[in-house]
Amino acid sequence: MMPKGRRASAFVAIATIVLTAALVAAGQQAPPRGSGQETLTRDPPAGTVREHDPNWVAPERDASKPNPLAGRQDAEPGGRKIFQQRCATCHEKDGRGTAKGPDLAQPDVQSERDGALFWKITSGNTRAGMPTFSSLPEAQRWQLVLHIRALFTPGGSKKS
Fold this sequence. Notes:
Mean pLDDT is 79; it is low at 33-41. By secondary structure, the protein is mostly helical. The chain has 7 helices and no strands. α3 (76-86) crosses α7 (138-150) and α6 crosses α7. It has helices spanning 4-25, 60-63, 76-86, 88-91, 107-110, 114-123, 138-150. It folds into 2 domains: 1-31; 60-150, Orthogonal Bundle (Cytochrome Bc1 Complex, Chain D, domain 2), CATH 1.10.760.
């Protein structure tokens, strides 16, 4: 049996190796010990817009779900209100994105099916900083999808 002090040292060494491997896999480098930068951030520099995560794909069974509120213009204003309360901090009021959240006008976002957007709003992507909004009632999440669609014309330009 290993002495207590050696076990603690071995644990620290293994934990350091595992953490370093996880950071490398995530594309992050560990800051130098004692540099004062030990808190890692995944946010891009200020003034930039976070890139869309191309690997974040909704399962087909969820992506194929139709929006039960589609065609109901009376439902979109509720989505706008929820967006301003819950989403604008990261995606800006106009949906054009910040360092915390991607531009929702991007073709790869706008080309997503309603069910995929609903799944992403519901599930979140904590790896990329997107919280889950599964606590919102289902109808409100579908309203958010309507609002994301209403922000932009089919050509990708912002509606006024």
